[in-house]
Amino acid sequence: MTWEWGVIWQYLPRLMDGAWLTMELVLVSGLIGITMAIPLSLMRASSLPWVKVFPFIYIYFFRGTPLLVQIFLVYYGASQFDAVRDSILWPILKQPYWCAIIAFSLNTAAYSAELFRSAIQAIPVGEIEAAEAMGMSKSVQVQRIILPRAFGIALPAYGNEVILMLKGSALASTITLLDLTGMARTIIARTYTPLEMFLAAGMVYLAISAVIIGLFRFMEYRFNRYQYYHHTDTPKNLDPLLRDPHIDQK
Amino acid sequence: MDLQGFGHLLLSGTWVTIQLALTSLLVGLVFGLTGAAAKLSKNRFARWLATGYTTLVRGLPELLLVLTIYFGGSQLLMWIASGFGYDEYIEIGPFVAGVAALSIAFGAYATEVFRMAMMEIPDGQWESGMACGMSTRRTFFRIILPQVWRLAIPGLGNLFQVLLKDTALVSVVGLNDIMRQSQVAISATKEPFTFFLVAACIYLLLTAATTGFTMFMERVANPAARESRG
């Protein structure tokens, strides 16, 4: 076996072009996915059966089938219907880029809705009761208490979901998109150096996931700051009038 | 829904998918147990190796693993074999490449599940095994492993669902699984939506069956909860 480092360096700029597309796909579909996931999770956490049923079926379908089927359903499946081909949406639906975005968004929305639902249900009941006691209406509660709290609770799990989405974005290469994997496959078709190119692509994926992990660690530190709060003892020489007996007891 | 006589093709694809998933599960469990044992061992090199394995594989897309093993695996194997003086051409088929890639990916996640389960088991269990005069290996197989199963099965069930869905990726390198066979049907009937929807429904049935089986296994692995009254 001959190992050619030269090929990696020669094609690295093109691989990086692919990496940008990968990051773009993850970012755009992640943002759309979150926007869809919030109403879905609120409906899923509802106690009314007829409100729960739609998000339940949606989440069950998208979590129970492979992402590859979902991409193919959007990209190839949409062209089966003449109504779609004649509609104004066709210029969007015939492009692999938008099909990938649609499929990834629908997929990640299902997974994140489930995460947010469990986060919403993990909020201590006392906090909701306190909000009620303050006289907040249901919509004010959702805006001020439920969503911000659920976001903080779901943040670590959502970080994992973004990593899974990054890994899933490699499937964009199956519908002719030149993302990181697609670019590597194109280069391999020309140079026939599969091990070198896939290794290089793999290292770029690892680097991107390391950045994402770091970003979420930082965000978690910001949003869940109360967990990292350290109580400092009151100084012994403090004026007795300023002492707070509740803090001193601790 | 009219399948236009392609139903048997999809069924044969389903059988291939099931075979691929179960084979990868078995091999992956071996990887997972080995990885967990290495992560918890006293040997620093083994720990380092297992950490490297899980970090690397969990950050790589499964599709990239499948492609690397399918297109690069034979090159790598031939290079290793030539070291032993074997110079014939070695080819890796899509099934073997699929099993290799999926079990490596499954094993990396299963390592973490097994490690957590093993750490849940109190040290006293090891010590009482020793007090009864069992060797470390015998304590592991008789006392620890049956309890590790009980703790690991919910996590492994989730991982198996992921594995089942990832089998679809092996169709990209030409394995005749559900995805591939529905593409064959589509090229004849020109009805992509119908057949991909049928494929999706087959996967839904398979994942639902897996959920049921996981719940059954949880009962089997936990005699204490099964036999308790109340």
From TrEMBL, chain A:
Belongs to the binding-protein-dependent transport system permease family. HisMQ subfamily. Its main location: membrane. The keyword Nuclease does not apply. Keywords: Amino-acid transport, Cell inner membrane, Cell membrane, Membrane, Transmembrane, Transmembrane helix, Transport. GO terms for biological process: amino acid transport. SUPFAM superfamilies: MetI-like (SSF161098). The keyword Transport applies. This is Arginine ABC transporter permease protein ArtM. The chain crosses the membrane at residues 20-42, 54-75, 198-218. GO terms for cellular component: ATP-binding cassette (ABC) transporter complex. One of its GO terms (molecular function) is transmembrane transporter activity. Pfam families: BPD_transp_1. It is a multi-pass membrane protein. PANTHER family: ARGININE ABC TRANSPORTER PERMEASE PROTEIN ARTM, MEMBRANE COMPONENT OF AMINO ACID ABC TRANSPORTER. Residues 19-216 form the ABC transmembrane type-1 domain. Gene3D superfamilies: MetI-like (1.10.3720.10). It is found in: Cell inner membrane; Cell membrane.
Automatic annotation (TrEMBL), chain B:
The keyword Membrane applies. Its main location: membrane. Pfam families: BPD_transp_1 (PF00528). Residues 14-214 form the ABC transmembrane type-1 domain. InterPro entries: AA_ABC_transptr_permease_3TM (IPR010065), ABC_transp_permease_HisMQ (IPR051613), MetI-like (IPR000515), MetI-like_sf (IPR035906). One of its GO terms (cellular component) is ATP-binding cassette (ABC) transporter complex. Coiled coil: none annotated. It is a multi-pass membrane protein. It is found in: Cell inner membrane; Cell membrane. It comes from the Bacteria. The chain crosses the membrane at residues 20-38, 59-80, 92-110, 193-216. One of its GO terms (molecular function) is transmembrane transporter activity. The keyword Transmembrane applies. GO terms for biological process: amino acid transport. Keywords: Amino-acid transport, Cell inner membrane, Cell membrane, Membrane, Transmembrane, Transmembrane helix, Transport. PANTHER family: ARGININE ABC TRANSPORTER PERMEASE PROTEIN ARTQ, CATIONIC AMINO ACID TRANSPORTER, MEMBRANE COMPONENT. Belongs to the binding-protein-dependent transport system permease family. HisMQ subfamily. This is ABC transporter permease. It comes from Amphritea opalescens.
